[in-house]
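Writing this down once: the sequence line spells out the residues, with the fold written below as integer tokens. I am pasting one below:
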Amino acid sequence: QVIEKYFTQDELDLVLGDSLKKYSLNKNRPERYWITMISAYSGTRLNEICQLDLSDIQEQDGIWIFNLTNDLEDKSIKTKSGNRIVPIHPHLLDLGFLDYVEEVRNQKQVKLFPNLKKGSTSSYGSAISQWFGRYLNKLDIKKTGKNFHSFRHTVVNRLIFKQVYEPFIKELVRHSHGSITMDVYGGRKPLEVLLNECVKEI
């Protein structure tokens, strides 16, 4: 049985370093690069990222967000309470994520990652999960019990270490059932608070 653990900083540097571009962008597989980076900077589950539509990338109150829903037939969120809005980390924007979005949009695609297909017995994330396992093997990391889900553990662990307010962490990764009550934001805009006091701490 695989024990899911968070990545150490050294492992994270290795996983997100030059090797990632070598095995993704340089092989004309941009989805590998962006899905990995998105999870590393949000803690979002693999399949939640892989099934995103272009229309799920939105700007609200001047903040770019992922709108995670299961409102279409071919989408699924792990729990009913998993539907949520996740602010996009500024580092992803600095890396050119919106340029990638525009590029795919210009191809008249619907899905954010059109190379990924959902089969009768497989999810949108199946191919990426298999690739990531091979990638960790190449980096000599997989034997430590790490997998793609380790990004989620890593993000949560980092936010806890930085003493981010726990309800904000739960809202970001939706570990809890249902969303947090509005009063914890102290009258401030929820998106702004999540971005500045949670996402930017990743």
